[in-house]
Amino acid sequence: MGSHVLWETKGLMGCSRTSSFMGGEENTPSAQRTLGFDWNEEYVEQIDKFSIEQLYKALRGDYQKVEWRRLTYNNVACPKWIFAFYLALQSRLLTNDRLATWGCVEDVHCVLCGTDGDSHNHIFFRSLFSSQVWQKVFCWQSIHGKARGWEEETTWVIAECKGKQARAEVYRMSLAATIYLIWQERNQQIFQKITRTLTSWKIRLFKRCI
Questions:
Q1: Which distant-in-sequence residues (6+ apart) come within 8 Å of 116 by Cβ?
Q2: Where is each Reverse transcriptase zinc-binding domain found (predicted)?
Q3: Is 182:123 a contact under the CB 8 Å cutoff?
Q4: Is pLDDT at 86 greater than 60 in this prediction?
């Protein structure tokens, strides 16, 4: 490179992220191993063309794409519905069975039906309340059959409701809305002691989706 300056790196040393890439204090061998590449000044001088995409992929790491990603990324539902749906797809909502493993609660029974454990699979598909809700949703969208377990339902949606067809988009939206509203109903019964009838709940769901 000779005397040619690739970047004015001195002015960028104030940024800790830039410092770690350009040979600063954080650019240690252990830090480089954590990032999975040697992104220092010597490496930058050797590359022919800088690529933001290359840097992003190096920082992100190489991970296999999850099959359900299109259920959230291509979903026209409200952001809060999608966020709750995203957490539910990863079993990250704070259900009683998760809280019990941390010693936060002792009673793990489902508040919606008072029987089985308060797990993702039970709350959203196996409880009596959620089963009745899904019957209404399926009838509204002319889908024959009944709600299955969490894994079976997501597998079916991934296979049958992909693409940009109106019917697929509406079902992905209503799926996110139903998951969100079931979770909201569960939380209202726990924290506010409010229980809504299925009829009022159905009207609430349809109004939000239309």
A1: 109, 110, 122, 126, 127
A2: 50-134
A3: yes
A4: yes
